[in-house]
Task: structure prediction
Amino acid sequence: MLTIADHTFSSRLFLGTGKFASAAQMQQAIQASGTELVTLAIKRLQLGKPQDDLLTPLRQSGIKLLPNTSGAKTAREAIFAAELAREALQTNWLKLEIHPDPRYLMPDPIETLAAAETLVKQGFVVLPYCSADPVLCKRLEDAGCAAVMPLGAAIGSNQGLQTLAMLQIIIEQSRIPVIVDAGIGAPSHAALALETGAAAVLVNTAIATAINPVTMADAFRQAVQAGSQAYQAGLTSSSSLSAASSPLTCFLEAL
Amino acid sequence: MQITLNQQVISCSSVQTLQELLQQHKISTDGVAVALNNTVIARRLWPEVTLNSGDDVQLFQIVTGG
Result:
């Protein structure tokens, strides 16, 4: 079981809700994934355009809703977005993300830490999307964040755990859950994150843009479960030399 | 009087509170947040906060995202 702040999750797979072809497909994928937490974004309301009822089915499914601050380029903007998100969803949980550069969407560590410090003081349960930087992750932990969400690779890039060596250090040092976010493009990437000791993974693009998102969601569910189970079972160490699994008793020498 | 609603100048003679403004524009409340003159207004205050001429009201909504 995974506990973040006061909330317990039996699934270690979190889902982003962006990029699905339809709301119905998103709902089916959520169900197939077994997730208990999905992320949402906030934007300016378009007057005169009918509001899609996105929230009713999500609320009925009982899963935790985690609004993000996507679009914020500075700590100041992120704090404003956080206050909006808290009112819109009536939750103090927040995925803090500040990425000023749209080309790589790399999180700004300085603005993120500054915003996290303020938001924690304002009573938010802060889960910051951040670089896979062990020092930054410790600083975010010290600031009172409920978890850290270091990136595996650039958002939506599907490149997998490019930051694996840094993630290993972050996981080893962290006293709060480490959720690998961004870059996870295949179930094997998610399994590796869990095998490495990540508390959870957040996946969006790899599921939402798959040819069959619902089947892919199920594949991720299984991979996350397998990775988590393998971590708990204790992976054996690797070696550059072979180690025989069958007896080498020279019983054929008489031939 | 005139106010700005999501960057559009509108007239609202009868509207008095934020709540009434939202009702007038048939805006559902779940998933919606309101900022008045760049300050986020808590939902419980929507029925109490009254609008003044020249106010800048911005409405935001929850959408899908990662």
User: Anything to note?
Assistant: The helical segments of chain B are 18-24. The first strand of chain B starts at residue 2 and ends at 5. The interface with chain A takes residues 5-6, 8, 25, 27-28, 30-35, 38, 40-43, 58-66 of chain B (CB under 8 Å).
